[in-house]
Amino acid sequence: MKRFYLLFLSAGLIALPVNAEITAKQTDIMKQLMTKFAEKAKLEAKDPNARGGASKHANKPFSAEIGRELYLKRRTWQDNDYSCSGCHTEDPAKVGKHIQTKKPIKPLAPSVNPERFTDIQKVERNFTEHCMDLYERDCLAYDKGNFISYMMSLK
Ligand code: HEC
Fold first, then answer.
1. Ligand 1 site, residue 99, Cβ cutoff 6 A
2. Which label site among 39, 49, 72, 128 has the fewest CB atoms less than 10 Å from its CB?
């Protein structure tokens, strides 16, 4: 009985809604981002100086599966493993933990965190900063589009 009450109490304190869905606002912002990344990916694919083989991805539709691979891909640097999932955890619906500061990071998945992907500038800024942190360069628009597809596919 005591245990039951404890469970009951803690459930009341957790602010994250259960069975949440991606809100209309998040869908709108993520669609805007995808349109923008799709246009940019076309330009990148045509650029003769494009790095990272952007031309290989010309006219390919974004893929949630490839976005997931990017999210989990590890890069070893100075004996540490770095990846998006390093801070945001392998399940983006879970609370993350910063690899350096150890501070908790609210879940990235829009389906469980209605605050995510509601501000285009914030998404773009975080995206670029985190790609720079991991790869010392911004990610391709193609990678970003795949990543957003992955986020939209999460239940
Ligand atoms: C070193 C830790 C760390 C790594 C590695 C990391 N992130 Fe983040 N990420 C954070 C923190 C901290 C925030 C900000 C949390 C906040 O303000 O709510 C964040 C927020 C974001 C956001 C903002 C979403 C929103 O609208 O609120 C995006 C997008 C994002 N990260 C994508 C990525 C991607 C893609 C990668 C891999 C290329 C990555 N992150 C790797 C720590 C990290």
1. yes
2. 49
